[in-house]
Design a protein that fits this description.
This protein has one domain (5-191): Tetracycline Repressor, domain 2 (Orthogonal Bundle), CATH 1.10.357. By secondary structure, it is mostly helical. It has helices spanning 5-26, 33-39, 44-50, 54-79, 84-92, 95-99, 106-115, 119-140, 145-168, 172-191. The protein is elongated, with a radius of gyration of 18 Å. Helix 1 (5-26) packs across helix 4 (54-79) and helix 4 (54-79) packs parallel to helix 8 (119-140). The chain is built from ten helices and no strands. The N and C termini lie far apart (63 Å). It comes from Phyllobacterium myrsinacearum.
């Protein structure tokens, strides 16, 4: 049975969305095409009508995951309009985010996987990371672009590092200590 263009487009978006979540949970190599397509409610054969390769899907799913994360940052900032950076920090460096892998930060979940991918996947991550940095820069802008840019890079590095370490340990007290230390350092950087 032939699929309409509208249905084909909807199927493609469903696969990208499903992959963006499952890749964050399992890693790029932790789930095969068959499992991805089944989770999206399609057959493996439909994959080849929608994507040129698994790398093509990985790049598009990564882009979608980073867009989703950016929307989460915007919601966290909007929840604390008088302290948008505080809102993002509270959301990002939280136990809820620590355990929410499917919808959590793709840089934490997939950063090391992305480092082993080709230029297309890295380009998706680079664009998303630059968006994170732009958001942080706007939140801490003090009139000096170079100073704000450096602060934003330090803040993002601390946040990603703390979340990565928190997810890597069993001891929740240690994980919370990573969050608490990161929050303290981020606040110092933002205030300097």
């Amino acid at each position: 049975m032939r699929v309409s263009r509208v249905q084909a487009s909807e199927n493609r978006q469903a696969v990208i969305e499903t992959a963006s979540r499952l890749f964050r949970e399992h890693g790029f190599d932790g789930i095969g095409l068959k499992g991805l397509m089944e989770a999206a409610g399609l057959t493996q054969g439909a994959f080849y009508k929608q994507f040129t390769s698994k790398e093509d899907l990985i790049a598009q799913a990564s882009e979608r995951a980073l867009e989703s994360a950016t929307q989460q940052w915007a919601a966290a900032a909007a929840a604390k309009p008088m302290d948008s950076l505080g809102g993002v920090i509270a959301f990002y460096l939280s136990t809820d985010h620590q355990y929410e892998k499917m919808d959590g930060c793709p840089v934490v979940a997939l950063g090391s996987d992305a480092a082993r991918q080709g230029t297309t996947v890295k380009a998706s991550f680079e664009a998303g990371i630059k968006t994170y940095l732009d958001i942080l820069e706007r939140m801490i802008s003090d009139g000096g672009h170079e100073k704000s840019e450096g602060k934003a890079m330090a803040i993002l590095s601390i946040m990603v590092g703390a979340m990565t370490l928190a997810r890597a340990v069993n001891d929740q007290t240690l994980a919370q200590s990573f969050f608490d230390s990161a929050i303290e350092q981020v606040q110092k950087i933002a205030a300097s």
